[in-house]
Amino acid sequence: MDTAEIVDLSSDDEGGEAGSRALHFDSDIASGAKQQNVTNRGHTPKHYRSRSRSNIQNSEENMSPSRPNSCHSCSGDLKQGLLPVGDDAGHSDSSPICAALPCRHFWKAGNYDNGLVPKVRVPNAGNYLNVHPLFLHSNATSHKWAFGAIAELLDNAVDEIQNGATYVIVDRISNPKDKSPALLIQDDGGGMDPEAMRRCMSFGFSDKSKFAIGQYGNGFKTGTMRLGADVIVFSRHLNNGILTQSIGLLSYTYMMQTQLDRIVVPMVHYQINTSSGSFGILNDQEHFISNLSIMLRWSPFTSEIELLKQLDEIGCHGTKIIIYNLWFNDDSNLELDFDFDTEDICIAGDIKKEVDALSSWETLNEQHTANRLRYSLRVYLSILYLRLPESFTIILRGQVVDLHNIADDLQYPEFILYKPHSSDESAVVTTIGFVKEAPEVNVHGFNIYHKNRLILPYWQVVSYLRSRGRGVVGVLKADFIQPTHNKQDFERTSLFAKLEHRLKEMTWEYWDCHCQLLGYQKNRPKSQVPIDTLPPKPPGFEIPVALNKSTYPHSTFEQVSPTKRKERHGSMDLHKMKKQTREQDFSTSVGCNDENIQTTACSEDQEEDQGTIHLIQVNTELHARCLEFEKTNEELCHKVTELRSKIQDAKLEYNSLLSQVHYQDLMLTCIVDGTPPAA
Predict the structure, then answer these.
(1) Are 86 and 305 in contact (CB under 8 A)?
(2) Helix (H, G, I), strand (E, B) or coil at 138
């Protein structure tokens, strides 16, 4: 093979010398592997020549009966001695204990130590822009929240729906070497061929469509390295009868323990022709043995047979990710708690374990989705996607995750169109309403989705210190703004700022129109003291118009604090002002000289006061008109009553006349027939 199968993420020369030879990063491992290669050299043609169809059929017996017959198992071939590295090789590199970093705390694992001197340096290093392994840790710090990292990996599985994926599994497994917990994420999508595996392990390569969730080619690295120090990836890809199998190891532990000066990723690739039955490896032999030796020492698996069994479990196509050496929290416990709930994965330390000691309303509040999603992966995954095809399921620890639409929980919902401030975007629908547990729960905010993926859950756009806006929840799909790389926030652009402002307005408008339905009362302005009823001001004393909170309309009152303005401009309250005025009127010993208190309202206050006076006048006029309308309504109601009475009288008169007509008709009939009328 011309391409090096240890991916050097620092290399800028894929076709040069570094790409045509194996890179030996551990001298004892490489030498042992090479010695074994020399020993078995006489058998190499037999190992890699095309095999008969009967051998392929025999190997299929080692597979799960649920797998399609077109897929082939390779673990059985190793038992027959058809590949060069096996259990009987006697490698010193396949340690029974999986090595781990001295520091297992994520936020401390990236400390730079200038005392570390790399053991291995690349020849002709001047031709490389080196990326130190510590960059893996720095890159992963974009995820402040562990569940955000898991969501990144699930996004890749959801993007595979277009390639036939029907499920993604998230589960806890045990590390075969030390029995420590490891995280499994597996899907049955199209899988990755060797080139796609290289791109996955590299930075910035993404060939996904514009409709996919992932766009930056960085989510796999940030997500896996945020959850654990090491990850091994297995993938099967079937194309035109050719089945490729790839294994890649991204081990922060390996690179730091061997003190490498750059990021390297050992990979091995296999190929099976389902038509001819031929089987072989895609690496050249030297690269294959070197990379496989590194995997067997630093991965959870001690033999190639175990590695290929993992591929057999995938099926015809799909990807399996195993993250091990999981990070600890500050309490030196695993950050991910697998024991609190056997059907869930929780964040240790954030679990609300003392619910029984809480009052009923506190329990209701703590059990709400808005609070539980912070520490329960099952709750978070239930609202992570706005909609998914019915054929696709998320399986968490053996149980299907029931998807939940937040909009279904809203009472008194309304649907408001929002037109983004860009010409090429159509209007989007915002669903807004009261959460169904309101007003008992203290939950509010907007849930913003991007391409059906939840970015901001219960985003609080207004201050909820007062009751106004309490319990108002909204759901919005905002594809017109771009999320940040960790998909936990949006880029702070002008479009985002305008959306935030409009959502604030929506919250106030909805609350003001519907708060009475929950028993709240609107804050109505208190009656104001008419200006003409104030006592006359003494000579040389200017009375400032001081405004209390009730003077303002509610929307203005939330943004401007009259108390702070009073402190800045030295304004006086009306009650204090009247008291001081009375003291000036009844005092005979103190004159109105320059030592008297004098305040002057600034021009800004005067403009606001004039506007307030104008509002009071308008309010008085409107009140007068309301009285007129009420009087007119009373008159109309009285007239309606009179008309109804006249209609009733007319009906009685009509019935009387109708009876008389019937009686006359009866008498006329008796006269004609000559019969006497009935008594």
Answers:
(1) yes
(2) helix
Q: What is the pLDDT of residues 296-327, one digit of tens each?
A: 999 999 999 999 999 999 999 999 999 999 99
The class level of CATH for 405-522 reads: alpha beta
pLDDT tens-place string over residues 391-427: 999 999 999 999 999 999 999 999 999 988 775 778 8
Nearest C-alpha neighbor of 612 from the set 566, 523, 550: 550
Measured between alpha carbons, how far is 651 from 361 in angstroms, rounded to an integer?
61
Give the number of other CB atoms < 10 A from CB of residue 362.
Answer: 15
For 517, counting Cβ atoms within 10 Å of its Cβ (0-12 exposed, 13-18 middle, 19+ buried), the class is exposed
User: What share of the chain has pLDDT > 90, as a percent?
Assistant: 43
Residue extents of the structural domains in the chain:
6-337, 350-404, 405-522, 540-601, 611-679
Q: What is the C-alpha to C-alpha distance for residues 267 and 281, in angstroms, rounded to an integer?
A: 11
Burial of residue 602, with CB atoms counted within 10 A of its CB: 0-12 exposed, 13-18 middle, 19 or more buried: middle
For 71, other C-beta atoms within 10 Å of its C-beta total 20
State the angle between helix axes of 146-159 and 219-227 in degrees (0 to 180), rounded to the nearest 10: 140
- Cα 472 to Cα 491: distance, rounded to the nearest angstrom: 24
Q: Yes or no: say if 238 and 316 are a contact pair by the CB < 8 Å rule.
A: yes
Beta strands 445-450 and 472-477 are parallel
Is residue 464 pLDDT above 80, yes or no?
A: no
C-alpha dist (Å) from residue 601 to 204, 285, 536, 574, 608: 61, 89, 18, 14, 10
User: CA dihedral defined by 394, 397, 399, 400, rounded to 10 degrees?
Assistant: -10
Kindly state the average pLDDT of the residues 242-252: 94
151 is written with which tokens? 């969501």
Task: Answer whether 0.85 is exceeded by the pTM.
Answer: no
Residue 241: φ, ψ to 5°: 80, 0
Helix (H) or strand (E) holding 54: helix 53-59
Whether residue 403 contacts residue 382, with contact meaning beta carbons closer than 8 Å, is answered with: yes
Summarised one tens digit per residue, pLDDT across range 627-679 is 889 899 999 999 999 999 999 999 999 999 998 898 888 888 888 887 777 65
